[in-house]
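Design review, sub-item: ligand-bound model
Attendees: FS, YL, KQ
YL presented the inputs for the zinc ion complex:
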Amino acid sequence: MLKINNLSAHYGAAQALYGIDMTIAAGETVALVGANGAGKSTLLKCLLGLQKPSGGTISLDEKDITGTSPARMVQLGVALSPEGREVFGNLSVFENLQLGAIPLKLGKAEESRRMDEVYERFPKLKARKKQQAGTLSGGEQQMLAMGRALMAKPRLLLLDEPSLGLAPRIMDDIFAIIRQLARGGTTILLVEQNAARALSASDKAYLLANGRIVQQGNSGELLNDPMLRAAFLGAASDENPAASRLGAAGLTNIRLEKPAMHTPDFMPAFHNEQELKDHQLRGLQWTVAHCYEGSSHYRKKFEAAGVAPGDIQSLEDLQKLPFTTADDLRTGYPFPLRAVPFEQIVRVHASSGTTGKRKVLSYTQKDLDDWISIFARCYQMAGVTALDRVQVAVGYGVWTAGMGFQLGCEKIGALAVPIGPGNIDMQIQFLLDFQSTVFCSTASMALLMAEEIHQRGIADKINVKKIIYGSERSSRSMRRKISDLFGGAELFDITGLTELYGPGTGIECSDHDCIHYWADYYLLEILDPDTLKPLPEGEWGEMVVTSLCKEGAPLIRYRTRDITRIIGGPCSCGSIMPRHSRIRGRSDDTIKFRGVNIYPSSIDTILSAVPGLGSEYQIHMHRDSAERDHMNLIVERAEGVDGGRTAELIHEVVHQIKKQILVSVNTELVDYGTLPRSERKSQRVFDKRITDEIV
Ligand code: ZN
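KQ shared the predicted structure:
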């Protein structure tokens, strides 16, 4: 939207700005951070036409506007909330607000409509609308200055030192309003001395010192840059000469409110694939010996397969080992696969099994420490830092979810809000009051929350930037919808299973095309679920895992039933950890229909691609008296889609399914919001053909 190109400015012979380049895209919040006298005000004056630059250009929407008059700038949609507020002390709040729209020559009705919008955003101003502005507190004057700028309905809002001279609590209020404006779509240039505040409220930032841009980039990264942190703290001088360059450049008096943040690194220290493989072989050899010595169950299985610990000489020797299945866990109830004496076990967890006996897993203290570390690694990969507030809306109790999300969060140093699932009203209240930045739940729960946020119209009042969800497949359209209704939050699919620690064994990276899994803690094989032979890289098959350092209940070639595939080659995110696709389904929940194997995810994919359909659907299977199978698909229309389009949409669904998975289905469309939403996993497949044999 705004582009500043090679801008320079002089006061007489003294040069104040040197070749400034800067861009602001529509919808972005950009921070311009610098100390007093760094040139921030000069840059703003040039932008507003209050000072003539001595070189360079400023363009708005690709039109050159260098030197345009201040009144004309307001008409072009650029408004300023100035440093020191500059409210007119003898005029009332109401009259001050009127001044903001003068250059636009609005009619009375429009003026009063805009005034109402400003009052809605700043209820304190409404309460004091007849009061003289000079009698307002500093925070209220700041609100008035911002409200006055908003009267012009600017496309680009310039905020000059909004935090100056305010108490921290008032500053919180002001920055909460800035974030709301940003989420509402206003493009903002935030000019600040307070680096920590400005960086945490913006998308990208420019650091200005002595009239030059000395650093620029993603605000979150700048905030966590150790050198910059040192510079902000003024600790740059002796030990760290690189930082003193910035210190000398005038950044040292920028205040950072928190002491140096401890950012631990949970990523493995491997430099190449060979180092990882050496580590894996050592782990495999240790695990096989540990199972053989510690577990009579495993020893019997090894002996039956004719394999002993000494036979494991390479990673390929993994093939010699027998498989472990859910049945081994059930028959060993209540302490299956246990390979250490009871005095070393400090905790058990159990899966939320629906039929038969639960799967119970034993943990030593080292197992728990390992689990917490890999969970913290997941948060790290999702970009969660000590500055985040993490609302944990997954189940607490004997299953692994809540505990894992909670302890991993505390390990990375973020603030945990352990609320658990359900309780929508409290969830919403906490999102608003605590301004949680990360929301963790199942995909179904995230969707439920997204719809609730939408219904209550509060997307611009919450502050969720990331959603970490797991334990359930999710279609592309469901992900898109959750992200949109949450005001543009970024989604991260986290994987895991109770048998292998719990959630946190891998996570989607910022590229969002894959799951990185923690190959230094377990080996992953992709096998054909029927023949149990390894499949080539890239082919879909069953994920089979072998733990490398698990003590309490180690896993040897455990059949997870999860269907995925290996993604080869390096990831553009830069991580060296290997990758697999997002989990596509379970080998035991493929639908066998008229001789065709159907993964429910392929139905997801097809429905997601038909515009006009919602994200919710159900698949019902039944068998008629002639032993013929039928599939009925019930799909929601998207919100606001006219019932008159039903025939057309049904035709498209039937046609696409026939074309892509070669089966005929009966399709029924229902209104948006008809199908049940669940906080847990939503049941989508209802197979009434077989009387229950699913375990
Ligand atoms: Zn990646």
